[in-house]
UniProtKB/TrEMBL annotation:
Residues 135-376 form the Peptidase C45 hydrolase domain. Pfam families: AAT. This is Tan. The lineage of its organism: Eukaryota, Metazoa, Ecdysozoa, Arthropoda, Hexapoda. NCBIfam families: C45_proenzyme. PANTHER family: BETA-ALANYL-DOPAMINE_CARCININE HYDROLASE, PEPTIDASE C45. It comes from Papilio polytes. Coiled coil: none annotated.
Length: 395
């Protein structure tokens, strides 16, 4: 029935919905992928149909250079992370969509720039992060900014992954995590936590020179959900033997068995002279963590244009606030709209990048709150408990 108390809703004009779909899953990598695909088939199909970025990726895929990059990346991922390839295949089968389209989404700018390496290429993505650490608490706030087509096209996976014996032999481990996911894409490249004490959020970064065939960032952030210790996380990010093909940074809270917590940011970039990633790790004690979509410490040649201009402007807005001392302060920063072209919380209908959700991780309360509207003037639509059930099993 199309009419609802006199208000007409259609797929084209439903606007920003205040909904956070959450699915609880248990099974092998393929099985959890399949069940995500089956349950969110309409959302995934809708996203693939409307996302302009996929059309751009397919155009590159249909060139000799693009197909070569796709093929070499797929071969390498089947060797390095075969169980995550199976997970994507499960999503494709469950949602009844082509696998190659989902894999193109995971290659992202690696495929999107294969025939265009100009510094002013149009990179999409966003996200603003701010966090503080006090003796009593650590609070991390994150805006999930993405192309406008991702509005209403996301969900949260809360998964217990039990690898098959075959996948275990290939390196898969048992996993317990919760992560926001873009439609049809692996968990990890957004915000979430695992039950070993790790909470993290992601900022897209845009090195000018990428490495086709190397590990796409979405595979590395998927693997990050398995980390039991900071050393594990560093090994995953370093990706020795191959290395990341594009770039990102991650904002991390580690909680340890004794109750201590660490707060850090790690910038990750392709190493153009070695088969590994470049990592720049910074730990925060008294200073405020602030990060958007430009490298702050690692010297990397980046693209120019909107993603950098937006990042610089949002950082300026974040710096204009006093250092946060409470969760309320974090809510205020995430809601900042001082600069109309590039606000921290972006909902302008004609903006190509939208804030699809905001998340606040409150480690004292052990909660992850997800907002669809500005956090300083709305209630969270969902509040998930942060469970660290495996914390005393890390060693």
């Amino acid at each position: 029935m199309r009419e609802l108390y006199g208000n007409s809703l259609s797929e084209k004009h439903i606007g920003r919905r205040r909904v956070v779909p959450v699915i609880y899953l248990q099974g092998s990598h393929y099985e959890v992928g399949y069940d995500v695909g089956r349950n969110f088939a309409s959302v995934i199909q809708s996203f693939l149909k409307t996302y302009q970025g996929l059309k751009d990726f397919e155009r590159e895929y249909n060139t000799a250079a693009g197909r070569a990059a796709y093929d070499s990346t797929l071969v390498n991922m089947k060797q390095r992370y075969p169980y995550y390839v199976k997970e994507i295949q499960g999503v494709a089968d469950g949602a009844k969509v082509p696998f190659y389209q989902l894999f193109l989404l995971h290659m992202d700018d690696i495929i999107g720039t294969i025939n265009d390496k100009n510094s002013n290429r149009v990179d999409s993505g966003g996200c603003s992060d701010i966090a503080f650490k006090s003796p009593e608490n650590v609070v991390l706030g994150h805006t999930e900014d993405a192309p406008m087509e991702t509005v209403n096209h996301f969900y949260i996976m809360s998964a217990h992954v039990i690898p098959t014996p075959e996948d275990r032999e290939l390196g898969a481990v048992e996993e317990r995590f919760a992560s926001l996911c873009y439609a049809g894409q692996l968990p990890g490249y957004t915000m979430g936590f695992n039950e070993h004490g790790l909470v993290f959020t992601i900022n897209t970064l845009s090195p000018l020179v990428l490495k086709p065939g190397n590990t796409p960032r979405m595979f590395i952030t998927r693997a990050l959900l398995t980390a039991r210790t900071p050393a594990d996380a560093e090994k995953i990010l370093l990706d020795e033997g191959l290395g990341i093909g594009n770039g990102f940074s991650t904002n991390v809270i580690w909680t340890y068995e004794n109750g201590e917590r660490d707060l850090m940011n790690i910038e990750v970039a392709p190493d153009l002279s070695a088969n590994k990633s470049i990592l720049n790790i910074h730990k925060y004690t008294n200073e405020t963590l602030m990060h958007c979509n430009a490298y702050l410490r690692e010297k990397v040649q980046e693209v120019t244009g909107d993603i950098i201009d937006s990042s610089v402007t949002r950082m300026k807005a974040i710096h204009s606030h006093a250092p946060p001392r409470s969760r309320r302060d974090i809510e205020s920063v995430l809601s900042d709209t001082t600069y109309k072209d590039y606000p921290v919380f972006q909902t302008r209908l004609d903006a190509p990048i939208q804030t699809i959700a905001a998340g606040i991780f409150d480690m004292s309360a052990r909660t992850w709150s997800i907002y669809i509207d500005k956090p300083d003037s709305s209630e969270p639509v969902a509040i998930l408990p942060i469970r660290f059930s495996q914390l005393n099993k890390n060693h």
